[in-house]
Amino acid sequence: xxxxxxxxxxxxxxxxxxxxxxxxxxxxxxxxxxxxxxxxxxxxxxxxxxxxxxxxxxxxxxxxxxxxxxxxxxxxxxxxxxxxxxxxxxxxxxxxxxxxxxxxxxxxxxxxxxxxxxxxxxxxxxxxxxxxxxxxxxxxxxxxxxxxxxxxxxxxxxxxxxxxxxxxxxxxxxxxxxxxxxxxxxxxxxxxxxxxxxxxxxxxxxxxxxxxxxxxxxxxxxxxxxxxxxxxxxxxxxxxxxxxxxxxxxxxxxxxxxxxxxxxxxxxxxxxxxxxxxxxxxxxxxxxxxxxxxxxxxxxxxxxxxxx
Length: 308
Prior knowledge:
The structure is a single chain. Strands 1-4 form a two-stranded antiparallel sheet. Strands 2-3 form a two-stranded antiparallel ribbon. The chain has 11 helices and 4 strands. It has helices at 3-35, 42-59, 64-91, 98-120, 159-181, 183-193, 195-200, 205-231, 239-252, 257-277, 280-297, and strands at 134-136, 139-143, 146-150, 156-158. By secondary structure, the protein is mainly α. It has one domain.
């Protein structure tokens, strides 16, 4: 395959990575931006979403689209409910203290991970996509009569991968509309600006925190449901989404939704391209170096606001 088609396929894989990471990173950014909680266990919510999706899809007979559609509803709800319980049992008792919640969520990471290992097992489990038609992608190449439309062998993708990108765009746009155009979004932004002032105006801040924490976990689970037909469910699959989400949130700006989305596209595309042409390890190294540069030259991130 020529370099051009190879690069195109690498960009497509990067777009899929960016789509899924944008959902996970937006959830992490909302939790930090509103609650000031660094949730180190956020990747395990992603993993739980994949496991619940596998369990739901394999428990229902019939066409794969039926089980997958049920997983799209079940996984975010189950993981969101788990997040509400965790918030009530751990975060509330720690009074959302930033330092103590970091330690608590590190411990929570291992608890969830080992619980998944004991119940789900160490093997990766596939989820059949609801549709997976192979699509040949034309490429403009140089033929006998000059530049012409050609169909090189192997330059193809599937309808499901394209649907993952489209679904992620739709979900992120919906989240933005909820935050910027609804009454609850206004309450969230008011809580983010000044929690004490919001409390004085009668806003139930702790209830907002619980909803935001569950919402962030549900977004991570939703991203897992979308990607699990491609990557398979595994009890260790939360590591990479957690790392990339932290990188995206730091580069985009803590609590900045537009910055997070822009950084997700940058990191996702670069991760996909570098992983295809070189190695996934090099992609993670370069992304980490980019974080270091951002922290040195622009600590607030691309679109974050410098705190007084």
